[in-house]
Give the backbone structure.
Amino acid sequence: MNMKQDTRNFNNLLSDLTVQRIPQNAEDKSRLFQLFSLRYEEYHQWVKPPFDKILLDKDPFDDVVDCHYGILHDNTLAACQRIILRPQPYMLEYAYDGRFSGLKIEPNSAEVSRAVVREEYRNKKVSDMFRGHTALSFLHREAYRICLEKDIEWIYFASVSNVVRLALIEGFPFETIAESTLENGDVIVVARLSWREFERKLSSKAKGLKMLEWFQS
């Protein structure tokens, strides 16, 4: 039994993940192509593209960001996200038929949207970290770093409710500020996080301090 458990854990380990900032106006469009293709796989997976045709997920909010953020394993795009800064409009204010258009948004904030982790990387962890960080952890860390660089306290995102629950389990004190049920039964949640509260919570425990050191490294 132990041997099977060890084999499973070994198969779930990654040697390393790296962060890449992908400019929206990059001359070499190959990485952007991979990013939009990965997003399409996640957000349009129920749509079967025409034979031998690759479809991309791109929307007007891509035009208001300077760059996207990718997590790479070797040369494979394992995860990606988009971070929108004020005074640009946030996707959550216009998506979902405008259900959340009237929300009060903190001025000192940013929005994460179109975040995706490739399916085969969702349960894999980097082997040399104290608790084994996932590709999702790397996305959170990159959002934290961007906000730290720009002195931004609040981060917002809208997603299905189980994504928010996963973030809470991983130790991110997101606060739900609105939710709505779509026609297909999915519950969409708008959540926000204060990075200062995040830092305070991590600083109160030894393991949390190690995680905070990694976020700030």
Q: What stands out?
A: The helical segments are 2-11, 30-43, 135-149, 161-169, 195-203, 206-216. The CA atoms of residues 166 and 172 lie 9 Å apart. Residues 1-11 have pLDDT under 50 and may be disordered. The chain is about 30% helix and 25% strand.
